[in-house]
Write a structure and sequence with these properties.
Elements: E1 2-6, H1 14-17, H2 23-27, E2 32-36, E3 50-51, E4 61-62, H3 64-78, E5 86-95, H4 98-105, E6 109-113, H5 122-128, E7 131-134, H6 144-155, E8 191-192, E9 195-196, H7 199-202, H8 206-224, H9 226-234, H10 240-248
Parallel strand pairs: 1-2, 1-6, 5-6, 5-7
Antiparallel strand pairs: 3-4, 8-9
């Protein structure tokens, strides 16, 4: 799996690639990351990569030509039989969900384009971009944070990256489990500032523990993300005990 990142600030990625649990994916080559700066493909002494927008208005727009030269160099280096997807992080894009991350984590990778300033010349987008992705309904100063989010989410799903190989199976949103939010977690001491760990988790009774966790997932999802609960119900992922618990909850 190879991700090529086109960014005016490639130095932002170095600490991420060498830190935390997900560094295992990068150090072992499970996720191969290459950084490219479009400024290296710009003309003139100043290596200009942006200019004022036609029609006026605030801010600057990234030039199409340095980006196109950079992308062509990336494609030549990858030498893919089938051109890799070109991803732009943009408010116009589809939301980056767990399901989308699973697709990317099983792919051969992509070229990630990190925009800056007011955006990128639309002609580059029309010519080269195959996918647009959004982290949510807010605006970042550039696509680097979104690219880091995608890389982290993909890396942690690779075999051998997490200490417990099955831990990601219980993540929030995982449709392979139920698509619900995760339950609360506790560790030592049993009492902290007069607050005790729930008795069920101390019981040693595995069936009781799993029922408590399931009930917590259902209750939290009903309160916080009822849309996920409806999707789980529609997919047939709720049983009689689940529905009985939900009926006993006070209306929100």
């Amino acid at each position: 799996m190879r991700f090529d990142i086109i960014s005016l600030f490639p130095e932002l990625f170095a600490p991420f690639l060498t830190s935390g649990i997900t560094r295992r994916a990068f150090e072992a080559g499970l996720v191969d990351v290459h950084l490219w700066n479009p400024r290296d493909f710009a003309d003139g002494n100043y290596r200009r990569v942006d200019d004022r927008p036609f029609g006026g208005g605030p801010g600057m727009v990234m030039l199409a030509e340095p980006l196109a030269r950079c992308l062509r160099a990336v494609q030549a280096a990858r030498a893919d039989a089938v051109p890799a997807p070109v991803v732009l992080f943009s408010p116009l894009g589809s939301a980056l969900t767990h399901a989308a991350v699973e697709v990317w984590s099983a792919s051969a990778g992509a070229v990630l384009v990190c925009g800056r300033y007011e955006g990128i010349d639309q002609r580059f987008i029309d010519r080269f971009v195959t996918h647009q992705v959004s982290l949510g309904d807010f605006v970042l100063s550039g696509g680097e944070i979104a690219a880091l989010a995608l890389l982290d989410a993909v890396a942690r799903l690779q075999p051998g990256v997490l200490n417990d190989a099955g831990s990601h199976q219980f993540d929030s949103f995982n449709p392979a489990l139920d698509g619900l939010l995760d339950c609360p977690h506790y560790t030592r001491p049993e009492t902290w500032e007069e607050h005790k760990v729930p008795d069920a988790l101390l019981s040693g009774h595995h069936v009781q523990i799993e029922r408590w966790r399931r009930d917590q997932r259902l209750q939290i999802t009903a309160q916080r993300r009822p849309d996920l609960l409806q999707a789980a119900r529609a997919a047939g992922r709720l049983n009689r005990a689940d529905e009985a618990l939900l009926k006993s909850l006070p209306p929100t």
